[in-house]
Amino acid sequence: MVKEGDAIPSVELVETTPGSKVNLATELKGKGLVIGVPAAFSPSCSATHIPGYVSSDKLKDAGQVFVVSVNDPFVMAAWGKTLDPTGKTGIRFLGDPSGEFTKQLDLSFDSASVFGQDRSKRYALVVENGKVKSAHVEPDNTGVNESAAEKVLASL
Asked: Quick one: which H or E segment has residue 33?
């Protein structure tokens, strides 16, 4: 499982369309935050986890912020517009359609019975200069405790 000091994997993710590629290993400069969720539009992700970041005054101290899910770019774009309609937070919503980014972080789990395929554990990675500064991974894969906005942003 991803840990402090690990490099962000060099994997192409997608933003808004399949042709709009984003590689966090090169895109994330300085300090930032990568937030992983099991599924866009799922109850905890939409009602608690990501809204906690969107509404936090401390988000401005996080640097570049990315939300990643094993979803396609269209779902992630629609979800981003639902959670941050004006885009005022600057949070970018990225799809990991094949789950390769998630697998390279060793954060995938078997969720076929609920989501039809392996998905990402819920997590938040504080990143600095391409390396994980701290990893906040939910021990039960889907809870909202270790990766909650108030806990992660307080650690910055």
From this structure: strand 31-37
